[in-house]
Amino acid sequence: MPQTLLNATVIASDNYVAFTFFIGTMAMMAASVFFFFELNNTDKKWRTSLLVSGLITFIAAVHYYYMRGYNLETGESPTFFRYVDWILTVPLMCVEFYLITKKVGATQGLLWKLIFASLVMLVTGYIGEAIYGTETQSWVWGAISGVAYFYIVYLIWFGDVAKLAGSAGPAVAKANKVLAWFVLVGWAIYPLGYILGTQGGLFGMQLVTDPKAAQASMDIVYNIADAINKIGFGLVIYALSRSEEKA
Q: What CATH number is attached to the domain comprising 136?
């Protein structure tokens, strides 16, 4: 049970899950302040991108604050709050690809492809983890989520986004490649967590004998990965705006 002091819930020294929720909250709030404060020092054509970066980390910081409280009060993984966070922030991360390639012909059709694929990935992932997480058919929903994820990877690495970024100049091409690595490597931790956290996550096989311990471990990994991915996206956009200024 969480310790209490003067009616305020505090984190036990061995509660690493709650500790990473707290660190994630502070890191993403600090990133939001930085991105918002730098808006006036940023060229107009990149301000929307930097604003979106600040919104991503701000939304995540608010959710992490609530997730930390939920975890401390119940000892459970805040799956619902986590997916609410993702369903708001992940499509915004996809919007960044549209914004940095808009000036060289990115269309609203491409924007909606990215948003739709991200929503399919998240909604089917939530159904599989929260509704069918203890049943073997959870792998079916995980597979649908995986297809949507790899479609996003395709668009960014080989499809329309990659082609547009390549024609937008070396700075945008470099930023797109770094963001693409975030999606390919950084986002890969989420399907791994799904596989380990659900009974049938890998084609109906049960890989974990202690689901509660596995979920606690994956919460820690999720929290660290979230901070790196979301803050990293914003820093890439910030670096892009500054590299073009120097050029």
A: 1.20.1070.10
